[in-house]
Write a structure and sequence with these properties.
With about 210 residues, this protein is an alpha/beta fold. It has one domain: Alpha-Beta Barrel (TIM Barrel). Strand 4, helix 4 and strand 5 form a beta-alpha-beta unit. It has 9 helices and 8 strands. Strands 1-2-3-4-5-6-7-8 form an 8-stranded parallel β-barrel, surrounded by 6 helices. Helix 1 runs parallel beside helix 2.
Length: about 210
């Protein structure tokens, strides 16, 4: 595992205007507590103007701590690239993607394209060939179900050993963090339930990563 391994924070699914202020406050504290490389903002679908406003509220917090902001919005039928760009985000994250090549063409000037929710090795390799910047294994689906922890661990080990494209291995429970860090994944993701209501969670995860690097 590289000593530069860093954390990624996943926001809750379907974050809406009512929850954005509390999320912003918790996120600022979390980003200051560890080496957070990225935040995946998983918004509730609404109109493009409303989504852009939420992104504009969160982008300065993440970027002020040196973290990239990726925007996700399952079920949004509009232009997510436009939302991310106008909101000042660093890129977009898509689950179970179908149009990665088109997104890759539109996300230029260093903007990031990430993908997750891919359940087969073949699908993962296809995503890598499409030019994504990272592949995410694990994390909750919008319905609250997560893939098996053993599957996430095995896929992260497989990917990190063979492929150059970085991966994010997501822990849903705290006892998964150390084993995911040991896979060699460039990023260990923390599901929202791990860090959003637990002030010390990010600092504890950071210590685990540093222990793996020692």
């Amino acid at each position: 595992m590289s000593s530069t391994q860093r954390l990624a924070l996943l926001g809750p699914h379907n974050l809406d205007a009512d929850g954005i202020d509390a999320f912003a406050a918790a996120l600022g504290a979390a980003c200051a507590a560890g080496a957070v490389a990225a935040v995946i903002l998983r918004l509730a679908a609404t109109d493009e103007r409303g989504l852009t406003a939420r992104v504009k509220q969160i982008a300065p917090i993440t970027q002020g701590c040196g973290a990239a902001l990726l925007v996700a919005c399952p079920g949004f039928a509009g232009d997510l690239v436009s939302v991310a760009t106008r909101g000042g985000a660093d890129g977009v994250h898509v689950d179970k993607p179908r149009d990665l090549k088109d997104l890759r063409e539109r996300l230029r000037d260093g903007r990031i394209l990430g993908a997750g929710g891919i359940e087969t090795k073949h699908g993962a390799m296809e995503a890598g060939e499409a030019g994504i910047d990272y592949l995410m294994f694990g994390g909750l689906y919008p319905d609250g179900v997560a893939p098996e922890a053993e599957t996430v661990l095995a896929r992260a080990e497989w990917w990190a050993e063979i492929f150059e494209t970085p991966c994010v291995a997501v822990a849903v429970n705290a006892d998964e963090i150390a084993s995911l860090a040991a896979t060699g994944a460039e990023f260990v993701g923390l599901e929202s339930g791990l860090w959003l209501t637990q002030p010390d969670a990010v600092a504890q995860a950071q210590r685990l990563l540093e222990g793996q690097a020692a």
